[in-house]
Amino acid sequence: xAVTQDSLLYSRVETVLASEINDRVLKVGxxxxxxxxxxxRFEVSRITVRRAIxxxxxxxxxxxxxxxxxxxxxxxxxxxxxxxSGFVEDMHAVGRKPTARVISKEIVTADxxxxxxxxxxxxxxVVRIRRVRLADGVPLSFDETYLPLEIGKKIITNNLKxxxxxxxxxxxxxxxxxxxxYKLDAVAAEAEVAAALRVKQGSPIFRIERTSYSxxxxxxxxxxxxxxxxxxxxxxxxxxxVSR
Length: 244
Prior knowledge:
The chain is an alpha+beta fold. The protein contains eight helices and ten strands.
């Protein structure tokens, strides 16, 4: 009976706080009341409050910041890997406001990896663009984009804080994007990426390598995309291959 009563108590605390988060009474970034305040409000024990908070952490609704307190977490963004789309399109699809911060736009020489992805010769000049992509003001992705020199020099004359590269390629420069190859893995954030995404060095992040192709199977855009593992998840739907 005691177990049932305890379950009802922490479940009530969890449910009320979750409702306040979902209803935006408590907004993203807000600090939750202290343990003592919650104990007094719900007339429960410290153990009950802590268990309710841990359940909210497990659900991704709040995060504990050591030495600071418990805060409402930004909800994870779900991205479907079912079609070729850019960051701006992805964020609009889930009701988020996309923005960008440009770190650099420069001409560099292609190493073996970049040259191979863009069907170039190692040492050829390419354009490299590095940006931080934000959703509702929160850094979500660090993007490193490589473009063949001719089209890349045109792209960097635009305002890349607001102009998506995909849109520029297709609408302004008449370079249709037909398909892309994705490679996704989980890695630890290195110093530069961690600083750009405002996470600790070594935090788990997703790394996507994406090569986009135009007509004639011509590669026109090679990217390394680093997404925060705590704020995004990727989903897809797979068809069963029928045995014959």
